[in-house]
Amino acid sequence: MIRLTTTARLARLEAEAGAAAESAREACGAAAEAFGRSVRELYAATDRAERAEATTTEVGATLTQAMRELSAAQQELLLKDIELRRLREEQRRGLVDGETLTVLLHHGEPHAVYASREDAHADTATHGFPADHAWKRCDERPPAAFTWRCEAFIYNAASNGFHRAGTAVPRALGGAA
Length: 177
Prior knowledge:
The protein is of the alpha+beta class.
């Protein structure tokens, strides 16, 4: 089959081909621009996700530390509550005749008062005195002659006060009658 093509038809086909090529270039440019936007959005989203992950890790560490501190505070409150109940019970009970207290003396001066001699001995260990020290009865030297000395006091209901439990050991006066 033979087809005759006129110059006008060729010119029209060339114009259509040029328009199609221009349209293809525009579409290619638009696609490249859309791809660039997509890549930038992907990088931005990745950056936000990484920052969010870092923030989540940081918040998790902070929360873990806060939980540890809360647990320690609750433990401390529980111990204080137990001690408070014990003290209230002791206060409700009142002083009992014959009950003893131990006064810890440092170079003869009162340092602290304790419910038991063991508590007083334990406190001297916190001040550098050997924890395994063998405590013994004090001789007739004055209390100031000792670095640490424990004195027991017994409650006397009749006088409504505490009196020294141990009395000084009497010594011979060298022949005096």
